[in-house]
Specification:
Elements (H helix, E strand, L loop, with lengths): L1 H19 L4 E3 L2 E2 L7 H4 L13 H17 L2 H26 L13 H19 L4 H11 L15 E2 L4 E2 L54
Antiparallel strand pairs: 1-2, 3-4
Protein name: Trp biosynthesis-associated membrane protein
Organism: Streptomyces anulatus (Streptomyces chrysomallus)
Keywords: Membrane, Transmembrane, Transmembrane helix
Length: 224
Amino acid sequence: MIRNILGSLVALAGATSAVLSPFRDWYAGRAGQDYRLEDLFGGITAAESGVLVSILLPFLAAALLVIVGVVLRSRLVVALAGLVVLGFTILWMVRQGQAAGSLAVAGDGSGLQVGVVNALAGGLLMLIGALLMSGRGRRGRRSRREREPVEPYAAPAADQVDTWPPTQEPGMSVQTSPWPEPEVDPYTGPDPRDPRTRSYPQAPHPEDDPRDPVHPPHRPPPQG
């Protein structure tokens, strides 16, 4: 987020410098808005130019690209704007050098002037801003993944045993009862019929209680 903000500010500063550069002197006291856009392709002439058909036009288009790139957080669009400004500025320098025979920087204002510096600086600032920006980042990719439909889990076929990794043991689909499976041989304590466990006194059977009128004591039949 911080990188996007910083890169956007640098790119916007570069766009501002590029748009203002044609209103300043470019060469020998001649402003950049006086150079026709068609002179960059056919050769520099002394003919005057209107503002909207001058070298200002590609710089305005580059500024619009910077705004679109900042809104969309697109590093590619911002970098493209910087290349447009640098490309047209270098093309003008080539044409001006052909017309004047050479390019020079003189202190008396007879050579390259501050307008060219502003244009070159604006294009470089746009490229630096594109490098500083982090783009859409992981958040945009994550939002695209979230919008993708998620296929539901396919239940196993009737003849396929549901297993659970990593033990590959049968899962819940093979159980026929919702209750837990009983133990194979639950422990119920010592066997009262085992003579080894009869050392402890056993409680009398309820039916052998002589005080119970309903259930008289169980007596073995007399031996005849």
